[in-house]
Each structure stands twice: as C-alpha cells, then as structure tokens.
C-alpha cells in the first residue's frame, strides 16, 4: 500500500476537457501522472464514486469551497480521483461547479487505485472495485501526507484537514 514518502505510481489518469486549449482537445484526455505532478504541489482526494451521497454533498463541495485557501497555502492543483470514466467525472464536475477549482480525474479501469493499494471492493453492492476514501498532499510526485478514511467514515480526508496540512508544511 502507498505510504508517506512514496512516489506516486506511474500511469495515467483521464480528464474530460470541455474547452479546447493548452494542447488539450475536447473530450477525454489522458495525463501522465509523473509529468503532471513534476514540480507541483497537488492535493488529491479520492472517493468511491461520482454522484454518491457523501461524495456529492460533502467531499467535493468542501474542496471547491476551499480551493482559494488551498492555493494560498501553496497547492498548485486539486484533483478529485474516482474509479469512474472521464465522461461521468466531467458531468459530475459540471454539476458540482468544479471548473477552475478542482480537476475531476478518472481512473476508469482502477489501474492507479490498484497500484496504490487503496482499493475498496464493492462488488457485493454491484459497484465493482472502487477507491477507498482518502486524501493526500503530493509534492513533486512524492506523498507528503496521506489520510485514509475508515470504512463508511468521512473524518480525515476533508478539505479542512488538507488545508491545515498544506499550511503546516
């Protein structure tokens, strides 16, 4: 399992781009994790699924609301990561009004999630392999803080905890 001090696993995540520019075409684009984190401080929070109750009512809105404060604390980007496809993450981002605040990163086949060891098996509930709920502060591709939630909890991966950690470094 991924730990503080570890480098993020190699691979790619997908993001649905609605406005062409900056070398990104419309639709799903793939982003290399190593290249995307190089020289940056990134707050990553992961959750079991788009449009799910706690994720939609608390997790994503908290990071949207704290985006400016996180940037003021030295965070270059905020990523929301879920085992969903880029189209779903794009639609959820529109609904949550994340544009310019939180990048909605898709791990459609759970490759990144498996590589981190932070999977959550929800097969019995008809949802397959998903991501555990967690957050991490990543500096230049290296995990500096890692906050993993206990099953069914939302206590340590919230935006306020991440903000305090970003301010403390």
UniProtKB/TrEMBL annotation:
InterPro entries attached to this UniProt entry: PRX5-like, Redoxin, Thioredoxin-like_sf, Thioredoxin_domain
Catalytic activity reported: a hydroperoxide + 2 glutathione = an alcohol + glutathione disulfide + H2O
Record keywords: Antioxidant, Oxidoreductase, Peroxidase, Redox-active center
One Pfam family of this chain: Redoxin
Domain Thioredoxin: 2-168
EC number: 1.11.1.27
Family of the protein in this entry: Belongs to the peroxiredoxin family. Prx5 subfamily.
Task performed by this protein: Thiol-specific peroxidase that catalyzes the reduction of hydrogen peroxide and organic hydroperoxides to water and alcohols, respectively. Plays a role in cell protection against oxidative stress by detoxifying peroxides.
The protein, known as: Glutathione-dependent peroxiredoxin
Lineage of source species: Bacteria, Pseudomonadati, Pseudomonadota, Betaproteobacteria, Burkholderiales
